[in-house]
């Protein structure tokens, strides 16, 4: 056998039979003493046999005689690392990365060794150099192209083949995490990106992505921890500060976010996005004049910035004038050649013009712009009204009085939460502000946690673990329900800052989960904020929501949604009479004192005058009604929809008898549920 063939045979044995590889290498060295390739093979076998010290000693001599052979330096670095000689490993890796700066693995190993000796700054920079090197790696580039083309299976196969060789490859883990995220597997995406950051803590792009994933899953304390780490990166970037501010906003730390934005603007005053973000925070804090100035700065620097225009219009108490209408019309004209690429700016401008023309009492022109904005927005969201109605029917047919009785006691006994449910624009923010003015109640925000729990339970049906929703809910033992209730209390704890015994969760969509709330939090209070169907639905339709509420961009869809809401809440009323306290918006406006007293008594709270002076409460409010609840109740908006009545035919048809029966449910509400199931089954 030739020497080359013998060396190839030894190399093939290294991973599977290192002892045999070592014996053959030593035999070959006796025939050819001092052969560098064979000596390297012997050292590799020694390291794989768990004897890095011996390997290091021989490799040091080999590297002295052959300092320009990268494979020798690489093996020496790994042997020194495994032998616990971090300084020798660092010296070797610094030499290696000078010779081969385009090899990412050398940089990542150097970063790990530097951390062992407390050199955090250089380690961070080594990780960043590794990421830079990996950005030109053909295998990763090809996988990224496949991912961006939507060829997820091809992309995943490429990356998994690479990870089979090196499971700790940070860029490969981060890329596979993004592929799995795009495929909808948030759990694996998080695990992969967390692994990338654990292996390479200086991988800023992976940590940035991890923060965004944690925000999406409402793991806000963890997101803040990583965002604060990112802000200490040796490569300073305003994007790191902006990401940290975004987490702070979600945690309710508006003042801290404000300071970040103001500092960035002092350094870079021409940034429209930062001006807009500052405006959002100032609006939440109730500083309206300052918010107006911030939004004005945003559109001054970027006149086509539709979201900033909408943010101005959405202050509700601000009226946009003729000059603003002309500026927005000009912006739409300038956007026409790139309307497809700038759809978000376009629909925001239409919503803004709808509000400006509404304030000018030009209702036909206002409706036209609202309609154009809604039609465009509807093409960008997914909502199947019939499928949603079927889900509502399943919930109504599950949480019957008999079912609740059969389930028996269980759930977390904590009385802390007050859920305010209903449709958006129903007066729920007003109810929240009234209750948050009570000394025993803390106002938080629209919390997604109950929806996260409900979605996780529904996924068990979607994945085939249970044949239907009712069977899945029936499978929950008292211990399961207690655990879920305790999970909700723990998840929401981060939003509680005042030490008050009760807190508000004002996520309106929780009306879909009242039955689940009753099972896992039996002592929680539930308040249903309800408004006239035409006023509520039309107000939601002409409101562009920052996220969610995908049903609201079509008059027929929003009418169907309201009808489903009324039917399910009526079913709950019959299944558990008195479990839900209802606040009728028009009655609250007409007789505030009596309605507030009735509300407090229903929640077991003593009357406090501050609840009637809710507009003096300076707490942060993040919803579309944030400015309206900072002033006494006014009646102007109660029947505002009548200005648009000639155009509301699709809404009136979808609502059916819900309009005339209001505030009571229509007599045929139960037939709606049957019809919804039939409609879905016939699709």
UniProtKB/TrEMBL annotation:
<dbReference type="Pfam" id="PF13428">
    <property type="entry name" value="TPR_14"/>
</dbReference>
<keyword id="KW-0808">Transferase</keyword>
<dbReference type="GO" id="GO:0008476">
    <property type="term" value="F:protein-tyrosine sulfotransferase activity"/>
</dbReference>
<protein>
    <submittedName>
        <fullName>Uncharacterized protein</fullName>
    </submittedName>
</protein>
<dbReference type="InterPro" id="IPR011990">
    <property type="entry name" value="TPR-like_helical_dom_sf"/>
</dbReference>
<dbReference type="InterPro" id="IPR026634">
    <property type="entry name" value="TPST-like"/>
</dbReference>
<dbReference type="Pfam" id="PF13432">
    <property type="entry name" value="TPR_16"/>
</dbReference>
<feature type="repeat" description="TPR">
    <location>
        <begin position="272"/>
        <end position="305"/>
    </location>
</feature>
<dbReference type="InterPro" id="IPR027417">
    <property type="entry name" value="P-loop_NTPase"/>
</dbReference>
<dbReference type="InterPro" id="IPR019734">
    <property type="entry name" value="TPR_rpt"/>
</dbReference>
<dbReference type="Pfam" id="PF13469">
    <property type="entry name" value="Sulfotransfer_3"/>
</dbReference>
<keyword id="KW-0802">TPR repeat</keyword>
